Amino acid sequence: MVFRDKAKIMDVEQIDKTLTRIAHEIIEKNKDVENIALVGIRTRGAFLSERLAGKINDIKKKEVRVGILDITLYRDDLTTISEQPVVHKTEIDFDIQDKIIILVDDVLYSGRTIRCALDALIDFGRPQNIQLAVLIDRGHRELPIRADYVGKNIPTSLKEVVQVKIKEVDGIDEVMIQEKEN
Amino acid sequence: MDILLKDGHIVDPANRLDSTSDILIRDEKIAKVGKNLRVNGAKTVDCKGKYVLPGLIDMHVHFRQPGREDEETLLTGSRAALKGGFTSVLCMANTNPPIDNQGVVEYIYAESKRIGLINLYTVGAVTKNLDGKELTEVGQILAAGARALSDDGKSIMNAELMRRALEYTKMFALPIISHCEDLNLSKDGVINEGFVSTKLGLKGIPRTSEIAMVMRDIELAELTGGRVHIAHVTTREAVELIGQAKGKAINLTCETCPHYFTLTEEAVLGFDTNAKVNPPLRTKEDVEAIKKGLSEGTIDVIATDHAPHSEEEKDVEFDSAAFGMIGLETALSLAFSELVAKGILNWKQLVERMSISPAKILGLDNKGSLGAGSDADVVVFDPKINWVVDVKKLESKSKNTPFIGKRLDGIVTLAIVGGKIKYENGKFH
Amino acid sequence: MAVTWVRKDLLGLEELSAEEIGLILETADSFKEISQRPIKKVPTLRGKTVVLFFFEPSTRTRTSFELAAKRMSADLVNIQTSASSLTKGETLKDTAKNIEAMKVDIIVMRHSSAGAPHLLAKAVSPSIINAGDDSHEHPTQGLLDLFTIKEHKKKIAGLNVSIIGDIAHSRVARSNIWGLTKLGAKVTICGPATLIPPDIERLGVKVTYDVKEAIEGADVINLLRIQLERQGQNLFPSLREYAIKFGLDSEKMKFAKKDVLIMHPGPINRGVEITPEVADGPYSVILEQVTNGIAVRMAVLYLVSGVRERKH
What DSSP element (H or E) covers A151? Predict the structure, then answer.
């Protein structure tokens, strides 16, 4: 499948401002920052959660715990996709019992990834509250899932793809819309 | 009806003939050999571009009758033989019941006569029930028509018994065909002991198992003056020992099989049970030594050790699979491609290994020759046709050969036994 | 990691490439954490059926595979020889075809005949995982040994690994030799001359009968079990003599490197190939091998279940 760049939605400054805004929203909604932990969904969600934790720390001068979740083993499409995906480590080295867990991902689309993440989290314990922060919400939900914190809402067509690039993985911070060719 | 074979390349070393000529067959004998023969009312077969040979003689086959007729019968075995160019075969005695007494020998010959396809001969066992303990009634067995003695399938471990057997059979001027295996060294072994057995974690049969027993039998032959024919030689060292012994006045002959000059132990990789055979396939150096031995005449005979086994006996775990492979239908093509086409043997030598020497060793006068007055056992071979070994087309009731799917060069187009056409281009008469 | 897993079966390490072995080890690393969670379960193999087809007694390997399958939510069936119809004269292939007819996905097989898993892999469509075929291979043991070494030493290439014991009859030795040499380790094998198979140097290993030579300079020492039954075959005079000459005790440990790893596939014969002080000592990673075994087997089950193409 070939993709063609169509439009640039966010650049490095906009992404940074958006993450700062989300950090403020998280603090406002959850008075007790002590009890918050961020869990990023591999791969880019994990790095975004690190950044968010850093920003929360800048504002409240408090360390927020960060974990990484690999949802591969919880996917509902393992028997139908053509190749077995590579499994990476899940690293949640703190107890999530009774905590406020904020899942972090780059793009919210069908909602199936978040459904997997919820199943995975429950296997680790019983959080008090699970919230969701995403950089981009592109619509087209297939499950009743919604985000608590959204960086930017981008209406898209099914032919389009939202490509989030972040420095830690792709060498650059930007959000592009691409279109499938033929 | 007379049969006239025209314009074939006749290979008849017994009469120093190795050129294109015609052969006239009348009644049960070769009537005349010469150029431009013309006979009225004869069935004429055009043999241009083909080789005409004295019928091949396989002095080592296992037809499973009586006892395992599901694997092969004297009938199906005879057909397989014809397809491979063999007009005479020597059956081994390890049937059930074994051919260890006059009665069973007579049964085999009676069956052979009834079937009427090829010359079916049999050995008689050396020991009762092939147990290696008590001699059989050798005289009665030979009088009933057995052409040799052999406990093949089993090894005679008791040297004293082998000695007495050789001394006793001296009176009859026929050989003991010896299966040389030290059962203690080879115990539980399934393939050649070496790199392949190490890789596969299978118990190996050390080469010494064959070499030590060959040495013993050579010494016993020298001691007693009896005749020993060493069956299925596979090792370089055995060839050397036999070569040295032939310099002395010992009644010693030996044979090898096509799989020992075409395959190595690597054929077993992947746990292919069709390559599981006793004695086992050896190394590249052994294959070269076997070819050299054939070329120099140290190895007198190419026999097949045709050993049919049912699917239930072969399509199992390697350790449990039966030893042996069928070979009648592929032998001549393999000998042609590997030996003649590659210049290791010429046609004259091939006929010596596969017809003349077996006839001599078994005392079959009038065979192995195409001279006037010889038995009309004739085979026509077309070297230009190649064919793929197809399970569905094999004549043998069993299909255990590692050559399935292989393309072989040369095929038998006509086989005449006792002056009658028994096989022609895929059809039996 | 550019390589994808495409094999329906895991029959041995001989046919795997270094990259494929690397993929399994990397995948196993991701699975290790699951056994440390309070709820040791992921839904990955939900609805898949795994059959443990064991013809030789085994507690360790069988339990390890059982836990690996169950922690991935698979349905599990245990077949032991005494209970199977093989004792009634049914062939191995027929028994396997009967199992196949019950629509199972993976068969984990241990058999006393080398090549038995290969026979089944050709005959039936479920994935076949070799859990040990006589003296031929025990691929998951080889893999968990590699995993354990890598966890401690961070790499395999360039390490000196010595394998001491009955090499001739050891499937663990063979699988280890394949895995280690493919990943670039330098392997030395050591044991009584009667228990070293012919031509084994051709696999790229060094052979010595001197246990001191095998211990000095080794980064890893892997000890193999000496089986009691072998004594009756005149392969060595007594367990006592074996223990004195080849058994790893504190005296011989004096020649070992200070950061050596002591490994053993288990079960250990205390006082024969290894003494209690060494088995329970600070250099021993024997129990870690057991823990890693589950992660490795989970990884193998995961990879093999993802192969879409089925024969037949």
Answer: strand A149-153
